[in-house]
Structure formats: C-alpha cells, structure tokens
Amino acid sequence: MTEIVRVIGNGGDLPDGEVPEGLAEKDLIEMFRWLVLLRTFDERAVALQRQGRIGTYALYWGEEATQAGALYACEETDWVFPSYRQNAIGILRGIPAATVLAWWRGYGGTHGFWNPRDHRVGPICVPIATHLPHAVGVAWAAKIRNDRASSLAWFGDGATSEGDFHEAMNFASVFKTSTVFFCVNNQWAISTPISKQMASETIVQKAVAYDMPGIRVDGFDPIACWKATRIALERGRGGDGPTLIEAFCYRIMPHGTADDPKLYRDEREAEKWKAFEPLGRMGAFLRRLSILDDAREDEIVSEAKTTIAEAVREMESIAQPGLEILFDHVYASGRPWSYDEALAELRAVERPAEVKPLGPPTSSGAGEEGKTQ
Amino acid sequence: MTASSLNMVEALNKGLHEAMGSDDRVVVLGEDVAKTGGVFRVTAGLLDSFGEDRVVDTPLAEAGIVGAAIGMAVYGLLPVAEIQFDSFVYPGFEQIVVHAARYAWRSKGEVPASIVVRIPYGGGVRMPELHSDSPEALFAHVPGLKVVCPSTPADAREMIVAAIHDPDPVVFMEPKRIYRAGREEIAETPTGATNGNGPNPFLSTARIAREGNDLAIFSYGATVPLCIAAAERLESELDVSARVVDLRSLYPLDVDTIVGAASECHRALVVHEAPRTAGIGAEVSSLIHEKAMLDLEAPVGRVTGFDAPFPQFANEDDYLPSVVRIFAGAKKVLEF
Lengths: 373, 336
Hints:
Chain A is α/β, with parallel strands linked by helices. Chain A has 14 helices and 8 strands. The model of chain A is unreliable at 364-373 (pLDDT under 50).
C-alpha cells in the first residue's frame, strides 16, 4: 500500500516530521487560525440547525485539515471547487460566512450565492463528483490562455464511484491540466462504508489508471495535506498535469444533521478516531514547536467566535426574500416572457403563511420585504 | 467574402469560422471534431484555421465534454461542445441540467455557463439504434436553458453565431436529415448579431416559412420542409391556404407569433418527429388553447412521432411525420 504522508506525530511513539520548506511560523499560525475558523463555523452551524435557524446541514467536523491545508497550498489565482462537505471553504477566501449560512438557511439570489470569479471559489456542489469536470475545464481554459491558474476540487470516497470522477481524471490526464483531485476519504458515504464502495485497497491507486501521480496523506494532518497539495500544484504548474491526493481520515460525525450513524455503525469506532482530529493535533504540534500557547490560542478562538457570531447576526437580519427571487438570474440574457405571467399569478393571490424565515427573526426588518404586492 | 450558396452543414461551418475568427474565447470541443471535422463535417477546417488549443478532439465521454466546457465558460471562454449524435447526449444530460442550466442562477447572474451544446438530432438517415432521437423537449423542460433548432441554412448560420454570443447555455438542435437537403444564399455577415440591444431574434422568434390564412402549421427542424410540401398540397387539392410557422426557438417559445398565427388562421396543427406526450407540440397546443381559444374553429391537432422507441430504420418512415400524414392531420383539423 502507498505510504501515508504525515508530518505531525502524536507527541509520543509517533515522532513529528520536519516542517516542510515554505511554511514559516506565521504560516503555521495562519493555518491554525483557518482550522479554528472552519471548526467554529461548523459547530455553530450544527447548533443553528438544532435550534431550527438553518436547514439540514452537512458537517465537516474533523475534516478541517483537508480543507485548510489544501487551500493554504493554493495561490490566490488558483480556483477551488468544493462539494457540500467543504461548504464553508469560501470564508477563507473572503466570501462572507453569512452568505454560506444563508445558503443553509435556504436563501438564494444575492443572499446565499456568490460570484465564483470574485474569489475563484466554485459554488457549493450538491450532486456528487459533477464539479470535477468543471475544475478540469477551468485549468484547461487557463492553460489555453497561458495563465498561471491551477484548480483543485474536493470530493469524498463515494464520489470515486461516479462516472464524472473518472471522466474528469481522464480529461485532466489527456490534456495535462493543472488540476488537483483532492479526495477526502472519510471512509463513509452516508451509511455505505468504503469496503462496500469499492474493491480497491486504496483510492490513490486509481491514479495509476490515468498515469498520474497519487499521494496518500493523513487527512487529519493539515501540514501533510498542505505538503501534498503543494507538490501537486508545482507539478501542475510545471506542465506535468494533474495529481490525485487521497486524504485518509474518518467521518467522525454524522453525514448531516438528519443522519443517525447508530443505525449503521458502531459509534465507539468514531470515538477512537476522534483522538486524531486535526485541531487538537495541530495545536499540540505548534505547542511542541513553541509557537502557540494558551493565550494565543484563546485569542484565535475568540476572534473566530466573534466572526461567526457576526455572520449569524447578519444571516438572521436578511429579510424573507420576495417573489422575484424565484425568477432572478435564471437567464443572464433577460427574463423569458412566461416569468411575467408567473409573477402575475403569484401576486394575484395571498402569499402562503408558510413563507417566512426559519427560526425567530432577530431583525425587525425580517419578513417585510416579501409581502405580497 | 461574397454571398454564397450553402447547405446547412456549410452554413454552420461558416458561422463557426466567423465566431472563432472574431473572438478568440470561442473554442470547439467534442468527439472527432478536429481532425475529421466531425462525423457530419460541420467543424471541418476549424483545426487548420484556429489550431489544436481551440479545436479539440476529446475522449469519448459526454459528461466530460459538457462538464469541461462548463468549467471553461466559468473561466471566461465561450465553448461550443459537439455531441456526436442525439442519443449520445444522455451521459452528458446531468451536466447540462444540474450545472449548465443553473450556473447563472447559482452565481447571482454573474457567471452563466455560456456554452453551446450542438446536437445533430432526428431520424430519416438510416442509422442504427440510438442515432435518431429527438430529445429537444427534455431540454425545453429545464429552466435556464435555451433550446433552438434551425430548419434552413441561412437560419443555421445566424443561429449558431447568435448562440455562441448569447450569455446563456444554448442547446442547439441540428436536424441532420436536412443537413445537405438544399442550398441557400447566405448573407455576407450575420444580420442578427448586429441588431444591437435586446435578444437576438434568431434565438427568440419564430419565422413565417409560408404565408397563409386558413390553417397555421407549427413545426421546427427537419419537418418544416415537409409542412411546406403538405401546405402546397393543401393549396392545390383543397384550396386551403396554410401558414407554416418555423418555431426556431423551442425555449423560449415565441408566444406572440404562435398565438397570432393561430388566432388569424382559426385552425392550427403542430408537427414534430419527437414522441407526442409532453412534446413541444403539447406546449404549443396548450398555449394556443389558453390564449386563443375563442378564435379557434377546431382543437389544435398534432402530427408527431409516437410514444414508442424510435424504430429500427426499416420502419423509420412509418414513425416519422410524412407529407401524407401531415396532410391527413391538417384535413382532420380543417374538417372538424
């Protein structure tokens, strides 16, 4: 089996590796800050869902290393394409956390969507693996235009069963696009374990078929994820094409807030894996390097909490969108004639009482914008 | 370049050359589109003119072709993806429906998937199974897509240029049966592209293919010439003057022209070779009934393919609307 790339040890029998070249102290702290921000968002989102203030939510608790580590290796001009499991990745690129929360609150239009070109962050991809050809297309276009941009797409182990994964890998390989296929192998696709997902021993071996390198990393180790992504991007920029990264980890949490893992797995197993979660591990590593102490960590955690709390306030201050939002932006060239009829039909009757934001509105403005007429 | 007499393949080819020549963001990709110029030769010569970066033979994978084209569009290119035959689009269907159609909506209208998916479609050319489908209604049912279908060389050239410049994703149905059916003078430059603001008429309006006032026959693609032939027979045998409306745009439908023609003629027939149920004809018929019921002397008739798989080709002419069947369908509406 392919060796697993790992940098962070456990402070005991598993020794720490060298911090890779290219990561200064400030980078390590910044990466830690990213992990904390992602974690804070995720935990807050789960709480909001429990309180009925956002809809069903797909957790990523424990997978922050695969996101922050990989993104930190990217340049600003590189494009990233998240699946729903990386739904908040954009907040590390400047997309307001309130926008992502609004997406989960069921808002569209200018509230819950963003312009992918603004931060080179693709939309949250709900169907499985279908964003991978887009990542290839972006890197391919950049290559045609002689631009430096590369692309990276995250997806899960289940996604490797989809045709789009294979078509994207093949296109990237044939056209040598600078694309990083970043597979977060958390070993579960809702209730389906990796052993039922595939008969292959690893995901990374699927790279062989496309004659591209594969790197298997510890998915709970942000520095290893950074290192693998850095290698992949350098290779891509050099014109040598794509790389498949398998970040081996475990889905410690349920698939989503509506999922009950007790129905299909022994949760003691998840508890065991919890010891490897990346935040504690990175924190301990940085303490061993003497670049993090309690005071600094408290400061980072507090800063993240403030950011997300403000985002929650902002999300809940968004008024219930009006009827127009049903038809906004469907066509960039303008509305088809039938939309006028549709709006007229809706405006001719009372708006259903059910049309209101989730949970208790915290702003006096909420619910006003959307009134009929 | 002077005006020239071209068939539909040559006209599309001319339009592609023009679009690629005037805008270096335009790229063409698909199976066998570069070196062979496509199995129907619609993309012939593009490789020599624009090079292998912009005219690409892809692996045999329609989700990959459409998906990569979407990514290219997101980056800022204007890709034209060819699906080799109608039924081959099904593996790419998900990319068209869940991504191409929704990228504008999903990006506040700022990043539409500005792609053209060219699909040679339809029967009548004696092909093996799954080379003769008419899947246009599947796409017309998907919000966010435009679906168009030319029936003449001149329209084909105008429409392909307009589709490439249109910001929205366009499913471009090409009636392969009439690819080389006839020649037509083609204007030196596309007229639709130069009419300034507003939607390009070639992507949003129907065309009156034949004047008449007793019966409105609505069709598109390869059945338009058959409708015209049936109209000639109606004229000579029954002294009925039938107006033939070539829809051109299947989504959005040109409601004014459709309802206007039905109101003025008082009788209407819709003709297409796709299966009947939930086809374009059902929508046209419904629109007419909703908006011009009191002007009608008869229910809107339909002459279509059937709710059965497109047959093996020994029987395809039984399945396809023929002049005889259109004539009979028209008579039924006239005699109601």
